[in-house]
Design goal:
The chain is mostly beta strands. The protein has one helix and eight strands. The longest helix has 18 residues, at about 145-165.
Length: about 190
């Protein structure tokens, strides 16, 4: 099926990669399994001691380069166009018209959440600043929703792939939580 960007923003060169994150089930898709994809922006940026808060970002290197990653999770959904023929006057049922043509013109991206993170290669730390699914795409609270858990695992798996071998990154730190040590990763000092 042809992917047709629904607006100019979707052709924005800001997004540098596109990946599959996980398979999920959503009320929005009638609980049918769908692949959650993510558009990704990455940029290398300089930072100094003024840019980081040691209580939040546990890095020893107070200045250097870090990689900023912005992920936009989305679903690819059918782009359906309806042509409605209007009645000359409203019907007793309240209807003002009827669908005369329904056509699928491709697919569209439906953004379902957001994520931001930084990687500090000198310290071997990746900090996930935020990662969430919008409320309309959750069946439970942020902490207990199955798709939220899949989103976090998908992002962590992507970071493992993006950041290379476990020797390059010791910890993934979730903002507001203790560092999460991955199985097989060396223990950070």
């Amino acid at each position: 099926m042809k992917e047709r960007p629904s607006d100019e923003r979707e052709r924005d060169p800001y997004w540098t990669a596109d990946i599959g994150l996980f398979e999920g089930r959503f009320r929005y898709t009638h609980n049918e399994p769908v692949i959650v994809r993510a558009r990704i922006h990455q940029a290398t940026e300089r930072y100094s001691a003024d840019d980081i808060h040691p209580d939040i970002v546990p890095v020893a290197t107070r200045a250097g380069s870090r990689t900023y990653l912005h992920l936009q999770p989305y679903l690819l959904l059918p782009d359906i166009r309806l042509t409605v023929g209007l009645f000359p006057s409203p019907q007793p049922s309240g209807a003002i018209g009827e669908v005369v043509v329904a056509e699928e013109t491709g697919v569209r991206r439906e953004q379902i959440g957001a994520a931001q993170m930084w990687h500090y290669p000198a310290d071997g730390i990746a900090v996930i600043w935020e990662a969430y699914l919008s409320e309309a795409f959750r069946a439970a609270s942020l902490a207990t929703d199955t798709n939220m858990q899949r989103l976090w695992v998908g992002i962590e798996d992507y970071l493992l792939t993006y950041l290379g071998s476990p020797h390059e990154t010791d910890k993934i730190v979730r903002f507001g939580r203790d560092a999460k040590k991955r199985d097989g990763w060396k223990t950070a000092t």
